[in-house]
Amino acid sequence: MNIKPIIILAFLISLSLTNVVVSARLFPNVSSWLNAHAPTGGAWDAFLNFTGCHRGDKYDGLANLKSYFERFGYFPHAPPSSNFSDEFDDALESAIKTYQKNFNLNVTGVLDDATVQQIVLPRCGVADIINGTTTMNAAKENETASFSKPKFHTVAHFTLFPGMPRWPEGTQELTYAFFPGNGLSDAVKGVFAAAFARWAEVTSLKFRETASYFGADIRIGFFSGDHGDGEPFDGSLGTLAHAFSPTNGRFHLDAAEDWVVSGDVTRSALPTAVDLESVAVHEIGHLLGLGHSSVEEAVMFPTISSRKKKVVLARDDIEGIQFLYGSNPNFNGSTATSAPERDASDGGRCLTCVGPSSGVFALLTFAFLF
User: Fold this and answer.
1) Where does Zn(2+) 1 bind (predicted)?
2) Do the beta carbons of residue 99 and residue 205 sit within 8 Å?
3) Is 209 a catalytic residue?
4) How confident is the model at residue 368 (pLDDT cuts 50, 70, 90)?
5) Does pLDDT of 7 surpass 50?
6) Among 65, 160, 335, 357, which is most buried by a count of CB atoms within 10 Å?
7) Catalytic residue selected from 283, 296, 297, 341
8) 209 is in an annotated binding site
9) Which residues, including other chains, have CB under 8 Å from residue 295's CB and lie 6 or more apart?
C-alpha cells in the first residue's frame, strides 16, 4: 500500500485548519497575570431573571430556557426545530423537576434561586438524559426516565458509556501525542504526564508519550471554536474540553480558556483561571471509558469550579476504572495527595468538561486528522 498520498492528504488538511488551531492561553506562573483580565459573564446569565417563575406564568425569554432543557435531554420528544412558547407549561415544570432531581436540588418544579443558580453555571455539553436514561444520580436510585429503555450501564455511583466501550482486553500500554500545531512546552506536557500517572497508579494500564501524532492511541490538542468534530468550543468558560470514549482517542481542549499550568490556582484573583491538570485527569477518565459520576468528590463529577484543583482520584473513580481494567498490583489502596481542593474565597465559577458518548462523527475528513 502506498502511504505517501495519505501523508500528503493529512498535511494538506492540517494546513486548511490553521484558522481554527490557535495558541492556547497557558500560564506557567499564576502571579504574573493576576490582574490581567476582567471578569466575564456566563453564557446563560439572562436566566437569572426567571428566579421565582412557576407554572402558569408567562415571561419573555422562557422559550430560550426551554431550548436549554431540550439541549440537555429534558424535552426528549420535542423536534429539533420546535418553536417553544414563553409560557411556563406542564412540560417545563416536568423538565425542571427532573433537572432538580438530577442535581440533588429540592424537587419543586419552580425556578427557585438554587435551581436558577445551577442552571446558569457553565457546564458539560453532553445531555443529562440520553435515550431516556439519566446519567445523573442513576446509581444512587437505580432509576431511568420512563420514556425509553435504559442505555447506560451503571455500577456503584460511576457510569460507563453505552455498550461499555474499553480499550481491548490485554492492553498494557497506551501511547499519547500532542497536536504539532500547538507547539506545547515541556512544562505543559508534564502536566498531562502527571494526569496520566494518576490513572496508571490504580490500574494495570501504562501511558507513554510518542512523537507520532497520527499513530498515537490518544491525540491531544488545543483548539478554538468550531474545530471540525461536531463539538465547537465556546470561548472563555462554558465548555472547557471534551474527550471521546474508547477507542477513538481524541482529547480536545478549548484554547480560549485561561489555563493554569503551575502555581496555586486557588489563590488567583482571575475568575476564569482553570487548572489544567484537573481537567486533564477528568478527560482521561472519559478516554478510558468512564462516564460522569454522581459523587461530587469524584474526579469524574461533571463540574469543577474555577480556581480549584481537583486531581486526586476518589474511591468512586478508582472503583470505576478498576471495574474496566483491574487494579495495579502495586496499588496500596490510596492515591497520591495534591494541593488543597478548595474554591477561591468568592466561590469562583463552575466550569465543565464534555465527554461525548459517541466517538464517531459525520465529518470523516476531520476524524482522520484528529
Assistant:
1) 227, 229, 242, 252
2) no
3) no
4) very low
5) no
6) 65
7) 283
8) no
9) 157, 158, 301, 314, 316
State yes or no: 292 annotated in a binding site: yes
CA 104 remoteness from chain centre: 20
In CATH, which superfamily holds the domain spanning 44-121?
PGBD-like superfamily/PGBD (1.10.101.10)
Distances (CA, A) of 72 to 66, 114, 133, 320, 325: 10, 19, 12, 24, 30
* Residue spans per domain, the chain: 22-39+163-369, 44-121
The whole-angstrom separation of Cα 57 and Cα 335 is 51
**Percent share of the chain, pLDDT over 90:** 39
User: Is residue 300 annotated as involved in ligand binding?
Assistant: yes
252 annotated as belonging to a binding site for a ligand: yes
Ligand-binding site membership of 346 (annotated):
no
Q: For 249-258, write each residue's pLDDT tens digit.
A: 999 999 988 8
Residue 257 · residue 291 · CB < 8 Å: no
Average pLDDT score, the chain: 77
Q: Does domain 22-39+163-369 have CATH number 3.40.50.150?
A: no
Classify burial at 194, counting beta carbons within 10 Å of its beta carbon; exposed 0-12, middle 13-18, buried 19 or more: middle
CA–CA distance, 349 with 238 (Å, rounded to integer): 10
Interval 186-190 mean pLDDT: 96
Closest CA to 360 of 250, 224, 273, 227: 250
